[in-house]
Amino acid sequence: MTATTSLARRLGTGDAVVIGLSSMIGAGVFSAFGPAARAAGNGLLIGLALAGGVAYCNAVASAQLAAQYPTSGGTYVYGRERLGEWWGFVAGWGFVIGKTASCAAMALTFASYAAAGPMWANRLVAVAAVIALTAANYRGISRTAELARVLVAVSILALLVVVLAIATSAHADTARISFSSFGAYGVLQAAGLLFFAFAGYARIATLGEEVRDPTRTIPRAVPIALAITLGLYLAVGVAALSGAGPAALAASSRPLATAARGAGAVWALPVVRIGAAVASLGALLALIAGVGRTTLAMARNGDLPRSLASVHPRNQVPDHAELVVGVAVILLVLTTDLRNAIGFSSFGVLLYYAIANASAYTQPVSQRRWPRALNVAGLLGCAVLVAALPLSAVIAGIGVLAVGVLGRALVCRSR
Length: 415
Hints:
By secondary structure, this protein is mostly helical. It has helices spanning 13-24, 27-31, 33-40, 44-68, 75-82, 85-114, 119-138, 141-167, 184-194, 202-206, 214-250, 255-262, 269-300, 319-335, 341-361, 372-388, 391-414. Helices cover 74% and strands 0% of the residues.
């Protein structure tokens, strides 16, 4: 095992789409509508559309860059290649820290639906989930794709059942969907929070070293996965508002269950619970894979300890990196309350994609597949949504980012 060992190219377009879907259609769609409704009220669907628009700009930038640089690391690699080492580090550090916290949030969300017990019991169930999915990733990316396929199928089926249950209920009322009164700032904050539920498409790019024919596969898989997710989210948003209205959603920690109950579709509540638990597992599975591969790329360049660049000789996965990520997530699950993790994660992810858009803007015409205007729109969109996030999330994000930058500066100086 060496730092330069390559990963195996085993994934086709379908596999890449499934991993992207399992990353996006996770706990976010079952939980993010609540805080988004509190922020935007009647402007919830507008916030969702804005989040989807920014996500599209980011997705095509990531796909275009991944086609030119088909290696593990995502925007960490693109930033280094197009803008310089420091920009790459900022993107990679933001991704690793933010998504490690997201892993813990997904694990705790799974436990809250699957166990629904006291906090100590939920934490133990969450730890068990992290151990199981870290082991699944450790066995190889083909195993990850196979498991992701099952998890995302169950998640989508659960969401479709909920949408149909509300749509066919006599108690659902489309009059609850109104655009009569909302604030611009609230809509932007809702878009920033809902962006959390879209942010999985980067997992396809971070797996760029493991897809077959990456110059063709990645640009196809990213927009397909995003389009499917956006369509499903819009259907869920319309159903949730029809079932309960924005005020009830805003007051709920389980907004889709509240919507089903408000529409009189009580029989669908177990489906919501199962769907949320399974979706959380799917997102956690893909998150661990993505964070591990970005850690691998950073370790290869000395931005993290080089021992993390190890690749397992048989399974051909970044074994040391994934084990370290798994341990870090377990520690967070056992010690931290991550109810505010959505805002913090959105900060890191939006920063990550801002650098992706800036990197894509510098690509020459020969490497471009989409116009530069989309890169400009994506960069501005990320900046606006970051500014609209809750102040506590912005302060925490800036603090953690500063720690990473200072640490790298000290390492560079010692060298």
